[in-house]
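pinned: reference chain
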Amino acid sequence: MNSTIWKQAWWLTKTDFKRDRLNWIWTILFTLYIAAISGSFLTGTGLREMKMQDYTLVVHNIFLLLIPCLGFFLSRRSFRYLQDDSYSQMLSYMRRLPIPASTILWSRIFQMLVTFAINGVIFFTAIYFLTLRAENFRLDQVLAFSLLWIGYGVVANTLYIYSEFAMNGKLCFLLGIVSFIVLSFIALTISILDWNLIQFSIEHSQKWGLLAPGMWIMLISGILLMTLTFKHTKKKLLLRDVS
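pinned: its structure tokens
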């Protein structure tokens, strides 16, 4: 990526954020909401009546389904993508600008990364005070736990970005439904097998800190997936009819 594409992509990202800057309020409130839910389940609040298998199923569903949401900025476009096919409208507008397709795609990646950075700090800070502080987590251990799950979120969001550029609003919605079903099935399977993915990630991060293999595997997986799908997503963008 040359400096011109970098500057253009960053300008588009800033323009998007400024246009919907008031929606940061809803984005942050949503992040705090899911952090409160996640933290309460991790500490066992309100779970005295629940079976352990039910407990792990709920926690796995929360993390597997909601962590990717930390990469979403709740703009008007994201609320109206099904009704107005807002992503296609956005691409139609972008395609008329004197900028290359790479700029459009990088702008979307920048938006995801900035949103992850802001929401991630808010979410995992809340998780630290609600749960991890009681486990005597050091800063490096908190970072390892956070980056492990953010890496997973980047993997999921890379697939969502591809769908935004390659599909219309209805197909994006269908993909979301399929993703929900698949992740719920994975969470159910993990619980039936009596595995605790969340507990493992906490203990793994506490043991290894920033040397945690799981953290690096997830981060590298996210980077590799973005790299491998970039050209294919760009090709879909160029060939897609958004008129």
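why pinned: Confidence is low (pLDDT under 50) at residues 45-53. DSSP finds eleven helices and no strands in the chain.
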